[in-house]
Design a protein that fits this description.
With 331 residues, the protein is α/β, with parallel strands linked by helices. The chain has a domain of 212 residues: Rossmann fold, CATH 3.40.50.720. The protein is 42% helix and 17% strand. The strands form five sheets. The protein has a seven-stranded parallel sheet, with helices on both faces. A two-stranded parallel ribbon has the order 6-15. A two-stranded parallel sheet has the order 8-11. Helix 1 links the parallel strand 1 and strand 2. It is globular and about 55 Å long. 44% of the residues are buried.
């Protein structure tokens, strides 16, 4: 029975990882900037700590820990670089250093496929086919790439690290992706961007979580997955706009009506970003260049490396995942 530390364990993915660890009999400490009673009620031990300014509580939280799952991050489509850097880079550096100092030898980091996204189609690619862009469209992928580099660079003879890149996590409890799109669909503001035929790899939350457990179980200094990043999805890609319409129709909303070409959407997004920055408007802009690029291109991945190096196998089929997601959204 391992003792596991999950940063961001009260979040969407972190809570799923925590639940799975507890269900199989592991002990779990959940570390976050606040306490998560709903996760602690499952049997996890809660520790309150800000990774950007850690105190002695971080060293205490790592005492006796066998593996760290670092899911905590600042996500989103808009904001200041300093905020993203503080959480995603400084926070990752701090938990890495503390983990090594505690003598824990396994560190599983949650990254994102956006760290290698160049704004163009990525069709059935493997990790070795992808590079970090020289320029990023937004601070989130840029700082997640910086964090991933830090994590993988720390892998060595006495400390094993790996980085997982689950793409577009969805499912019951999703607080971001689908709720935002559903809100826009209800108000008639959602439009298909581009041709509407682009294929995307997506990841049901339980599949993303089990990938983390499988990667951690295989991880040791010198193991096949040590020092490497891995894409994670449900398997075969979906035509993303068709898939969204299935969700909307399951909720009685009807399909998306209206379409905007990339040639119109991209300069429009650039202008809106300029207005938001220039006038310091609050909240996220209705559209950004990163959003346009992500939703109008195909990006899906060959999972050969994850399957071979740590035995990745999804536990929920895409069909079941869609049914479960719609049922949860209805509730």
């Amino acid at each position: 029975m391992a003792l596991c530390l999950v940063t961001g364990g009260g979040g969407f993915l972190g809570s799923a990882i925590t639940r799975m660890l507890l269900e199989r009999g592991d002990r779990v400490r959940v570390l976050g900037r606040r306490r998560y009673p709903q996760v602690e009620a499952l049997g996890a031990e809660g520790v309150q700590c800000d990774l950007t300014e850690p105190g002695p509580e971080l060293a205490s939280a790592l005492e006796g820990v066998d593996v760290v799952f670092h899911t905590a991050a600042l996500a989103g489509m808009w904001g200041e670089y300093e905020a993203y850097h503080r959480v995603n880079v400084v926070g990752t550096r701090n938990i890495l250093e503390a983990t090594r100092a505690a003598g824990c030898q396994r560190f599983v980091h949650t990254s994102s496929p956006s760290v290698t996204f160049h704004g163009t189609d990525e069709l059935d690619v493997r990790e070795e086919d992808c590079s970090y862009p020289e320029r990023f469209l937004f601070h989130y992928p840029q700082t997640k790439a910086e964090a991933e580099r830090l994590v993988l660079a720390q892998d060595g003879p006495d400390f094993a690290t790996t980085s997982l890149r689950p793409h577009l996590i969805y499912g019951p409890g999703d607080p971001h992706l689908l709720p935002r799109l559903i809100d826009r669909q209800r108000s008639g503001r959602l439009k298909v961007l581009g041709e509407g035929t682009n294929q995307v790899g997506i990841t049901y939350v339980d599949n993303a979580a089990v990938a983390h457990l499988q990667a951690a179980d295989a991880l040791r200094p010198g193991s096949p997955n040590a020092g490497k990043p891995y894409f994670v999805t449900d398997g075969e890609p979906v035509v993303i706009w068709d898939w969204l319409n299935q969700v909307f129709e399951g909720l009685g909303l009807g399909p998306i009506r209206g379409q905007v070409s990339v040639g119109v959407a991209m300069p429009m997004a650039g202008l809106i970003e300029w207005v938001w920055r220039t006038f310091g408007l609050s909240g996220e802009p209705p559209i950004t260049r990163f959003t346009v690029a992500q939703t109008s291109t195909s990006h899906w991945y060959d999972l050969h490396n994850a399957r071979t190096d740590f035995g990745y196998a999804p536990v929920v089929t895409p069909a079941d995942a869609l049914v479960r997601t719609i049922r949860a959204l209805r509730a």
